[in-house]
Structures are given as structure tokens and as C-alpha cells.
Amino acid sequence: MSDSDNNIPGPWYKQPWLWFILSPIIAVVFYGTFYLYLSIVTHDGLVKDDYYKVARGHFVDKSQSQEAIDLGVSGQLNLDNTTGDLMLKFKSEGGYLPEFLNLSIIHPTHQQYDQNILLKQVPGTEAYTGSLKSLLQGKRYLILKDEARNWNLRAEAHPPYDQNTIEFKPAHEQ
Questions:
Q1: pLDDT tens for each residue of 77-89
Q2: Could you name the CATH architecture of 58-173?
Q3: Domain spans of the chain, in order of start
């Protein structure tokens, strides 16, 4: 072999400088595709509230809270996270007692942990009962509504949940 044979470059894919330059670009394409896939298959969920966007601002619909104030409704929820039992003592000015109430227990960040529970009136009393679908962990927002969804009461629940009592009051009293 002569010296001229040693100076012939190999094929392009065997050049170290090419791979040095291409490796960050290949890594960006790989990780970008992975994170695009991850953002598509995971869902953050929706905000469960009466917020909606108006032009460049946000508006909160307070009509359901005002209806609760007008009816004079309030409640006290006894929550036993060990057994999953719920007991609501419902109070209303004027004797308004619907047969069923809807309780939404909302996780602040993950929709998959939300629970919608139908509370049934105990005949002849102002008490409503229901059961948790799964035990609670972490902070929760609670929304109590009538079946027709004309009014709502809101509350926040913080752990520990064992024998916890949560007050539902109209918005102007909180």
C-alpha cells in the first residue's frame, strides 16, 4: 500500500464529525416526538366551575349562587373517609326540600379523581345520605346542587377526612 491509499476518506456515515453534528439534531427529533405523543395521550381535564371567557377577560356566572342565597339554603356534610359514608344536614328557609341533591367532589388538578354523588333524602327529615365511590386524598372542592341545577353551594375540603364536617354556605356568607 502506498501513502495515497491511507488518505482516502471512508464513507460519509463513518465520519466522526458528521455524527458529532447530527447527534443533537437526532436527539431533539426523538424527544420532541416523544413529548408530542405524551401531550396528546394525556388529558389535563376541564375546569369545573362557572367560568367562561368573554373577549379578553373572564366572567364568573354567579346566578346559581344568588339563587341559593334567595332560597336560603345551607348544609353541613359529615364525611367519613374510612367507611365512605356521607350525611348531609340540609337547611332551607321556607321548607324547600328536594328529593335528591347532587354532590360533586372535584380534584384541583386531575379530572379522573372527580366524583359525582347522588344524595337521597331520608324520608321525613332534612338529612340526605350517599356514599363515596373511592376514598379521598388531598384537597377537594365540593359543589352541592339541586337536581335541576338551579342553585349551588360551594365548599373546600382539606385532609384529614376521618369524621370531617364541611359547611356549605351561600357565597356571601363564606
A1: 988 878 888 999 9
A2: Sandwich (2.60)
A3: 3-41, 58-173
